[in-house]
Amino acid sequence: MAKRAPAAKKAVVTDTAPRPLHENEQTATSVAGESQDTFVFRFWELGQLDGGKQGVEIGHDGAPIDLFVFDETNFEAYKTGQQHQYLGGFGITAARHLFQIPFDGKWFLAARPVNPDDQYEVAYRIMNFN
């Protein structure tokens, strides 16, 4: 009788969250609309930027996302469901965007998937304009 080969060991895969592309990536919850629905979004503090002299280039891969660039005041309003202004838009599918910062201040980048279960990645870099 032929000897059976030992059964192959099954690999154990642990589900780990993807490592953020930028170390300053954070996650938060906000509210929106009259019903004050909550949603989760990712954000990055871009730091103090010079209006008219700097911008942010954003790369996006994956599912459509809502993508926003905020000054500090409008970022706080966004997080609490208040009226706010932003650079960016809803349902973004293009892979690359460049936004010129309009005025000096502390700036933030926020992103959320259009469909909550969708996967996406965002990368950014600060640009200097001459």
Calculate the mean pLDDT score and round it: 79
Low-confidence stretches: 5-20
Q: How would you describe the shape?
A: globular
Q: Biggest sheet, strands in spatial order? A: 1-2-7-4-5
What is the architecture at the second tier of CATH?
Answer: Sandwich
Largest sheet entry: 5 strands, antiparallel
What would you note in describing this structure?
This is DUF1883 domain-containing protein. It comes from Vitreoscilla stercoraria. Residues 1-33 are annotated as: Disordered. The chain is mainly beta and 130 residues long. The chain has one domain: Sandwich (Jelly Rolls), CATH 2.60.120. 6% of the residues lie in helices and 50% in strands. The chain contains one helix and eight strands; from the N terminus they run ββββαββββ. The strands form two sheets. Strands 1-2-7-4-5 form a five-stranded antiparallel beta sheet, with helices on one face. Strands 6-3-8 form a three-stranded antiparallel beta sheet, with no helix packed on it. Residues 5-20 have low confidence and may be disordered.
